[in-house]
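Reading is simple: each integer encodes one residue's backbone shape. The lines below illustrate:
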Amino acid sequence: MLRQPEVFLFFEVIDRRGDVDVVTHRPLLVFACCWVLGSGAACMYSGLKWIFIIIGLAILLVASLIWRGAGAVYTGCMIFALLFSSVYWEWNDERNVSSLSFLLEDAGAADDGISVVTEGVLASPVTVDGDRADFVFMIHRVHPYSEDFKEKVQVQVKLLTQEERNTALLWRRGDNMRINGQLETPSIARNFGGFDYRQFLRTQEIHWIFKTKGIENVKVKGHEEWKWSYVLRLNDEVREYIGGLVDQVFSGVNAGYMKGLIIGEKGDLDPDTFAEFSRLGLTHILAISGMHVAVYVGSLLFVFSRLRLTRETSLTAVIFLIPLYVLLTGASPSVVRAGMMGMIGLYAARKGLLKDGMHILSAAALMMLLWSPYFLVNVSFQLSFLVTAG
């Protein structure tokens, strides 16, 4: 039996070992936390306040790491993560501006909008809800201006008849379009703490809403081929095909539920059913994430083992097949996180490297935030990583 002084000594040793384990044995986790801290500070503050907060956080970080016995190189790497991520956010945020602003300023109608004729490519699946069709449109030309643009806008098409609704359902990603409509700025939150639609679209690098009435103002002129948009178009068609198979097997509200569970398609989910899931706190079941990727990976490994493929060949094949499933399920932040963790974990297993779950989670977070710092303010991203870390 341990005497009282030995008990305190025992827990002190455990506490110190725990500190060392977090700080020195999981450096990537600490690096990712410093990265998130720096990006978060830049997201919430600007100007001199941002600079003072970053300096204060850097001083606290240095003091904490020195107190824990971290070396100079280790401390320097963490300070780099804090400072670079903050500057990286600011750099991306400064670049996130519209190339069409000068057109509205020339017209003297930056707030009220301006009538324009545009040419470009449909850049997202089309959502038809009631008498309105919504999609993202990549503008390449604005008439009568001769400049070439590359600007994403959120298009809202008012559908006047059932025939127009049926026509809008045939539009596909990658379609070349000519649209005549009104370019407007998104609305802001009118009440304190309300939803800010303008800021929400800005995190997706969209600065304008393009409204038009009737599909006579939307002309489709073929579609792009052998470009990334064409690959996404094929992916959308496969998703629709799978959705059709689900409709044949299931009926009623079950079809919409199974589409959400299998391919992440929530458009056909019954609103009352979704409300029940939300009331019970079970909406995460409908989010494609780690469980789905694990079942997918496990099924592939089982099939490859039955085909008598070697372990290395099976792992390599699954690594390259995971992105296909991520695309097929809609590439939400949660499934992107799970897919990246799966690929990193399988690569580590193939190479016989250390397979630490928190390191893999941290690597996935860093890669996603490098791709787009705005993932940090995405609720799906936040919940996915917090729940997985827990």
